[in-house]
Amino acid sequence: SGTPTVSGNSGSMVFECQDSTINSGPGPQGVTQTGSLSLTVDPGFQISLSPLSGIAGLSYTGAVTSSQGTSPYTYALASGQLTPGLSLASDGTLTGTPSVVGTTTFEITATD
User: Fold this and answer.
1) What do you get for the CA distance between the two ends of the chain, in Å?
2) Tens-of-pLDDT digits for all 112 residues of the chain?
3) 107: which strand partners?
4) CA–CA gap between residue 97 and residue 26 (Å, rounded)
5) Cα 7 from chain centroid?
6) Distance from CA of residue 108 to its chain's centroid?
7) For residue 51, cis peptide bond before it (omega within 30 degrees of 0)
8) CA distance linking residue 8 with residue 42, whole number of Å
9) In this structure, are residues 96 and 60 in contact, taking their beta carbons and an 8 Å threshold?
10) Residues 94/87, Cβ–Cβ less than 8 Å
């Protein structure tokens, strides 16, 4: 168990399974199987927004993009609120006219 911290690394492990029905019925009993498993850590799913800023009262069009996954991607607001006047389409297009000045914090999820 654990969390990979470096991408591109790979490793393998050997596992063993043993039948727990020893002496409890017909057929092979106490059978043990051994196998191996390989794991390669991918670089990770990337998500970005461009451009990062807009001007209150002027039309804004931005795009959320993703990489390291399998397209097509679907985007959704995960938490927080978009700047008033903006909306996020499921294809990652962020459009509208920001109606207030300031910074907003929100999270967008991308599903591949």
Assistant:
1) 25
2) 566 565 555 555 666 666 565 555 565 556 666 666 665 555 667 778 787 788 889 999 999 888 878 888 899 999 999 989 999 999 999 999 999 888 888 888 888 8
3) 79
4) 74
5) 15
6) 11
7) yes
8) 6
9) yes
10) yes
